Amino acid sequence: MRRLTMTAIAVAGLAIGSTTSLSAVAAPPTGGVDRVSGYIVVLRDGVAPARAADAQADRYGADVTHLYRNALSGYSARMTAGAAKDLARDDRVAYVQRDGVVHATAQTLPTGINRADAELSPAARVDGADERVDVDVAVIDTGVDLDHPDLNVYTAGAKNCSTGKSAEDGNGHGSHVAGTIGALDDANGVVGMAPGARIWPVRVLNAQGSGTFSAIICGIDYVTAHADEIEIANMSLGGAGSDDRSCGATNGDAMHAAICRSVAAGVTYVVAAGNESDDAANHVPAAYDEVITVSALADFNGTPGGGAASTCRADQDDTFAAFSNYGADVDLIAPGVCILSTWKGAAYNTISGTSMASPHVAGGAALYAATHPTASPDQVKAALQAAGTTDWSNADDPDGVKETLLNVSTF
Question: What is the pLDDT of residue 18?
Fold first, then answer.
């Protein structure tokens, strides 16, 4: 379920590598080779950079690579350390600096991924090497950013049951869900629970994040048609309703009937409990017994124990999220507060909701399915519950029942 509170988009920056300013450059080691390296030459005020670069290149044996005329007066060049030392004494030179290396900021391990111990999972293999989990996950949502560089989107499997002409995400919510499930482990951006999982974008909600039961059933119908390919489906959405029957009975709930058939076909459904601070029994698909219903944990540092300062909203660390639905229909709890993930427009964003908790579990289910390809949805649910922990505080949980907290370290 999408929370309306959002923080600013997180953008990638640059981490500047080590540099050395040289008023006098150290000489090469005695007996060693005076190797050619890159240097930045900053000239004194009033010195013409082009003329100085030409003259100094000839005199000191430098190979000029860039000329600076505006932000500063100077140039870059490749030369030996000995030549750089001599050049630093030139009357026209203010100083010489050894060139440095810059990299895009390192990949972020979001707090939710950390708390679920996905980085410890042998199947996830979180090491920056972009090894991809061989599993297919349908994101039944607002669509997905089809070109996001941090997602493995299976565009041939895209389906639009909502407005617009494609499964492209016009809201951002579906892209956020997709990133938590399977953002690439490529040393950039963020990493997901099941890195590189193939994401099937199934758009059932419009750009405002709204939709109809009929559109959602269209999405479920599509996933069921591809049940031989799709192992997991995430539905971070919901509406008013209840579960007053079991599969095989009938009470006129077409969405429940569709879920029943899809689960029978082998697809594991993971759904959000809802954000109304209400019993999940009053909301569908959360109330259905055949799905894995997920409530939200507030966790601000990715580790148990509590005490971390809140970040994007005023929940208490390591406790039941204030907005989360609860009750007997909840099967697991997972981080859902201030979650950083991918966003539309190749961006990243931090938002909160049981919508953010559900994809953590969907990613965990994907890890299990990848190594247990014949597991039934019931077996996937049982495995997730058996692997979880109770290492969190449920003092503020309205129903007093301590749900199992997602943990995939053994998957």
Answer: 26
Averaged pLDDT score across all residues of the chain:
88
More confident residue, 117 or 106: 117
Local confidence band at 249 (pLDDT 50, 70, 90 cut-offs): confident
Which pLDDT score, from 0 to 100, does residue 34 have? 63
What pLDDT is attached to residue 27? 29
Edge-first strand order for the sheet with 20-22 is: 20-22, 93-98, 36-43, 74-80, 63-68
| Angle (nearest 5°) at CA 377 between 372 and 378 | 105
25-29, 182-186, 391-395: which range is least confident on average? 25-29
Contact 73, 43 (CB under 8 A): yes
Pairing of strands 232-235, 136-141: parallel
Q: Do domains 36-98 and 111-387 have the same CATH topology?
A: no
Residue from 148, 169, 173, 317 carrying the catalytic annotation: 173
Under a CB-based contact definition with an 8 Å cutoff, are residues 403 and 389 in contact? no
Helix ranges (H only) for 126-244 are 173-182, 213-225
C-alpha 270 chain-centroid distance: 18
Question: What are the sequence ranges of the domains in the chain?
Answer: 36-98, 111-387
Helices (H), 183-302: 213-225, 254-264
pLDDT at 394 over 50: yes
Phi and psi at residue 142, to the nearest 5° = -85, 10
Quick one: tokens of 394? 């449920």
Tell me, yes or no, if 141 is annotated catalytic: yes
Q: Kindly state the tokens that stand for 299.
A: 């966790």
Distance CA 295, CA 323 (A): 10
CATH level 3 topology of 36-98: Alpha-Beta Plaits (3.30.70)
3-state secondary structure of 279: strand
Catalytic residue among 86, 117, 136, 141: 141
Cα diameter, the chain = 92
pLDDT digits (tens, 9 = 90+) for 146-174: 999 999 999 999 999 998 889 999 999 99
**The CATH fold of domain 111-387:** Rossmann fold (3.40.50)
Q: Which of 76, 175, 236, 355 is catalytic?
A: 355
CA distances 17 to 38, 71, 101, Å, are 14, 20, 5
Q: Is 173 known to be catalytic?
A: yes
pLDDT digit string (tens) for 294-326?
A: 999 999 999 999 999 999 998 999 999 999 999
CA 403 to chain centroid? 24
